[in-house]
Amino acid sequence: MALLYIIIIVAFIDTFSQLPIIAPFAISLGATPMLVGIIIGLYSFSNIIGNIVSGYWIDRSGPKIVLCVGMIFVGIVLFFYSIVTTPQQLVYVRFFHGLAGGLIVPAAFTYLGSRKTSESKGRIMAFSGASVGIAAIAGPALGAIISGRFGYDYLFFMLTVLMIGCAVLAIFFVKELQVISSKAASPQITSLKLTKPMLFSYTSIFLLMFTLGILTFALPLKVEELQLSAELTGPLLSVFGLVAILIFVLPTNVLFDKWNNVHLMTIGLVIICGALVSLSLSASFIHLLLAMMIYGGGFAFIFPSTSATVVEHSGEAKRGKAFGLFYACFSFGVITGSFFAGALAVSPSFLFLIGALCLLLIVILLYLFSWKPVI
């Protein structure tokens, strides 16, 4: 079980470590501003394709083969970052990186959801959320420090070694899960139905990543608007991850087993709304810090409850497909949030406020729909 959490950390470090360096790396190769935007967004686009392919493949062959092939494929693609010489070559590498990376996370979470263990699913997903939080904190710092001190190639070599190393460990130490045939199992087990809780889960993770896309775009601008040092953006982004991790690993994680998942998701989304409003009204670094702590609380409520809902409402024969769609919504939310933020020519404060109002409206409609009796 611990190895799976390590794999999740490495998989997300692979993504997060490139956030601060991919734009300058593309520019160093001679990419135009428009091409830089395409290079950044292409990873998430192909990641969606990889998530969906992963889901179907997991249900046919089991998560182990998908997990190992995905990590080996990513390790190989990461090496090619170090030998590209033109922006056009980087476009191809980014596409295949996102495609291969999309295979890994659904497979890892399918494993976690299918493990026969005495631990409750809510706590398991809380610890998986902590793994993502650790990667979100360590990844950007790691990428910036290593590439800054030793160059981009060293970062890509390090990620290659980490990914291939984890693949080798998975091959030898991750056990196979029995693949349940759709013909052999009962319809109740094999069917993947988009129940109201499942739709709530998919929509909630999309909205969470949508707000994160807005946050990534607008927070540096908000820091600049308040005439603060640009270096403060990194610590502010780390704060929400730290708060989320504390909620995941402390005794507060019992909430994820005692409370209804739909209620947890709703509370989390409302907290995110409050965080966005707070960011909009913030007039100092302390205010921004408090707002990001609030955001971390919302993130902590949403991530485990959405994952646990997918586990509870998907049969084992279709769990791979369920998590594939889940992480496709995850990736699509990032793309949509960034595009939404970039398309609106407004101040960062007004952008946070618009995001909060849109989110609140969707949450109200979603909550009413989820509890409407089925005729």
UniProtKB/TrEMBL annotation:
Subcellular location: Cell membrane
Keyword Transport on entry: yes
Principal subcellular localization: membrane
Gene3D superfamilies in the cross-refs: MFS general substrate transporter like domains
Pfam families: MFS_1 (PF07690)
GO molecular function, one term: transmembrane transporter activity
Record field: transmembrane: 34-58, 65-84, 90-112, 124-148, 154-174, 199-220, 232-250, 262-279, 285-303, 324-344, 350-369
GO cellular component, one term: plasma membrane
Key words, A-Z: Membrane, Transmembrane, Transmembrane helix, Transport
Domain Major facilitator superfamily (MFS) profile: 1-374
Record's keyword annotation contains GTP-binding: no
Family matches, as CDD domains: MFS_MdtG_SLC18_like (cd17325)
SUPFAM superfamilies, alphabetized: MFS general substrate transporter
Protein name per Swiss-Prot or TrEMBL: MFS transporter
Lineage: Bacteria, Bacillati, Bacillota, Bacilli, Bacillales
